[in-house]
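Renewal narrative, Specific Aim 1. Our central claim is that a sequence can be written position by position from structural information alone. The example that follows is taken directly from our test logs and has not been curated for this report. It begins with the structure tokens describing the chain, in the order in which they were read.
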């Protein structure tokens, strides 16, 4: 069977991209859920018996949902442009609608943040992304978590797992923004 070039906006291709991205996100162990920005290209290889293999090139952006949340990408809001990570995913997925099979054979995603110089040009006052393992961000996360532990109605304390995103903005002085993962401990409040 020969390779077909279906339209990127056809329902079949959109569903193939949706299923591929669902499985890519489920497979990733760290970072944020990737959201489809656009389908760049697609080739379809109909199989002899049933189903098709789709070769997809997808433009993606990251969202505000961490991959550990396991939320579907369609339920996750894209980030503001100044803090967005964007890139492309190449994916090969076999889909057999009759047998209700969607098997992601392989994928490769290349991601990068929006360059700081571009952010400063477009939005000079926006926070600038920084290295999340810097002590100042770990301190900010620890302070934030201490406040959460004090004010929450949870029966146990939570500890810091890691800082996943960090940025800084000068207002009157430095303002630190952190996103972090927490885990429940065995310590009762």
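The sequence written for that structure reads:
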């Amino acid at each position: 069977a020969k390779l077909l070039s279906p339209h990127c906006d056809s329902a079949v291709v959109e569903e193939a991209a949706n299923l591929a991205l669902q499985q890519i996100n489920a497979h990733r162990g760290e970072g944020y859920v990737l959201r489809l920005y656009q389908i760049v290209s697609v080739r379809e290889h109909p199989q002899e018996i049933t189903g098709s293999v789709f070769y997809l090139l997808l433009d993606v952006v990251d969202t505000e949902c961490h991959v550990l949340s396991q939320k579907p990408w369609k339920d996750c809001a894209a980030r503001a442009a100044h803090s967005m990570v964007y890139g492309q995913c190449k994916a090969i997925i076999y889909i057999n609608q009759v047998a209700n099979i969607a098997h992601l054979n392989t994928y490769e995603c290349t991601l990068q943040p929006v360059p700081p110089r571009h952010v400063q040009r477009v939005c000079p006052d926006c926070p600038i992304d920084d290295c999340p393992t810097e002590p100042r961000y770990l301190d900010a996360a620890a302070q934030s978590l201490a406040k959460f532990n004090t004010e929450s109605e949870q029966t146990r304390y939570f500890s810091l797992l890691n800082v996943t995103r960090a940025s800084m903005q000068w207002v009157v002085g430095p303002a630190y923004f952190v996103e972090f993962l927490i885990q429940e401990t065995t310590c009762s409040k």
